[in-house]
Amino acid sequence: MSVNEDTKTDMVGKALGLLVLLGNEPKGASAADLARSAGLPFSTTYRLLGSLTRDGFVDYEPDGRRYHLGLRVFQLGQRVSNHHGFAATALPVLQRVTDITHEATILSVRDGDHHLTVNKVDGPKTFRVTSDPGHLGALHTTSVGKALVAFEDEPERKRLVEDLPLDPLTEHSITDRDVFRAEIEQVRRQGYAVMDEENEIGMRAVAVPVLNSQGHAFASLATAVPVFRLSMEELIAHVPTLQEAAAELAARLPQR
């Protein structure tokens, strides 16, 4: 690769990095904020944002001088979702679970050291779960994340258990390595994972793995509720419904 080609590749990486940063800013961000977060010169950031805006990957809001992700990103995301069956194939299964539980149903996959929400059906009640499709969350503080870790193949599971950052998100988050190790072993034994205000105060959830033919999780499926609506025992009672749906998803979704 020539020096010029290497520079171009580096600029592509920087542009993609800006898109990732914008994905974490639902209210948008200024060029100065993005330059600071990305560790890039303002001139470079401004030039890249101009190119991304021109091609529809980024929208510019003149009034607040803020940038947002553009519809081109949404379009590509929808294509990825359709390719993996998360829309047409998975959505009816999630909807049936919500029809039974009357609560939110969430489908997630692992994206590096995070989980990625790929589909969600809200429950009919007014209190709404905030984990929308495209949301990146912690593995150690969520039921979907714990299920994904517990049912990874052994080498990757061991790496995650030993090396995953255990940063607290609430006062209930697991931050001790030995406690996390024991939690993952318990998830493997019982076949489901729980979250009790560890990721967000006022919320609890239960999740089961969606397993491939080797018995490893390529996704996880959860029911999430506000703590005032269901006790942990009542929530765990939904595990058989989730497991039945997970088996259907395992048979119908492309396995990664």
Account of the protein in words:
The protein is of the alpha+beta class. Helix content is 46%, strand content 20%. The protein has 10 helices and 8 strands. It has helices spanning 3-23, 31-38, 42-54, 71-83, 90-101, 143-150, 154-163, 177-190, 232-236, 239-252, and strands spanning 58-61, 66-69, 104-111, 114-121, 136-138, 193-196, 203-211, 217-226. The protein has a 6-stranded antiparallel sheet with strand order 5-4-3-8-7-6, with helices on both faces. Strands 1-2 form a two-stranded antiparallel ribbon. A hairpin with a 4-residue loop joins strand 1 (58-61) and strand 2 (66-69). The longest helix is centred in the N-terminal third of the chain and has 21 residues, at 3-23. Mean pLDDT is 88; it is low at 1-8. Residues 72-255 form the IclR-ED domain. This is IclR family KDG regulon transcriptional repressor. Keywords: DNA-binding, Transcription, Transcription regulation.
Write the layout of secondary structure elements.
Elements: H1 3-23, H2 31-38, H3 42-54, E1 58-61, E2 66-69, H4 71-83, H5 90-101, E3 104-111, E4 114-121, E5 136-138, H6 143-150, H7 154-163, H8 177-190, E6 193-196, E7 203-211, E8 217-226, H9 232-236, H10 239-252
Antiparallel strand pairs: 1-2, 3-4, 3-8, 4-5, 6-7, 7-8
